[in-house]
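Morning, I've got a small favour to ask if you have a moment. I owe you a coffee for this, so here goes:

…
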Amino acid sequence: MKAHRMLNSLMLGFGLLGAVVALPTPSRATELRLLSSLGIKPVVDELIPQFERATGHTVHVRFVLTPQVPQAARNGAFDVAISDPKHIADMIAQGTVRAGSAANIAKFGMGVGVRAGAVKPDVSSSPTLRRAVLGFSSVGYVAVGSTGPVVRAMLAKLGVSNEMKPKLKSGGVAENLSAVATGATEAVLMPVPLITAAKGVELAGAWPKELQDYIVMTAGVSSASGNRKEADALVEFLTSPSAGSVVVSKGYEPAS
């Protein structure tokens, strides 16, 4: 009887051991490097902490201007990059980003920002936007970013390129927004979500449809990433339906 109980105990012990061994092993915590365009910073700032909490991974984010993403990718290691479709496509062609990994996250339109509390001009049509920009004493924009050519093209369509040349102030995103907030610059021509996210700056309005030029933000996984599974998971998270609600809440639109 005693031997029988001992045998049962041994069998139970081995059974429990087998159950423990059969349990799924938690995935390892990984450090990922995200190289992102400043054009989608409000969305990234909101979603990355959510991804970290959900997965246990850590994501180190570096923001640069959209056209600077390919060069920054060549100069430093990264797991996921976010830029516009053209630059991601170029990076795929160069072998920097893995083919088949690209996915669109969001798109944004352009708008006019003014100092908080200032009178907001009507910019809802081509004639009113033309009158507004000509009435500004100074206008900031990011000349070297992806929106620089968009701004210049819009001013050309309005036929005010020459008149606006002495009024335009080129600078970085934070620099331009800060200048408007302090009154150093009267207005800024910039992506709508960046304007609405800035302190001390208010959106006068988005450009009218006939002048609007949407810019898409696309993610891609590094072809040299040693964390391919986790990098793919990050891209999947950034393009998930739950992320889409954050995209809309930050003033962006679904990429589709």
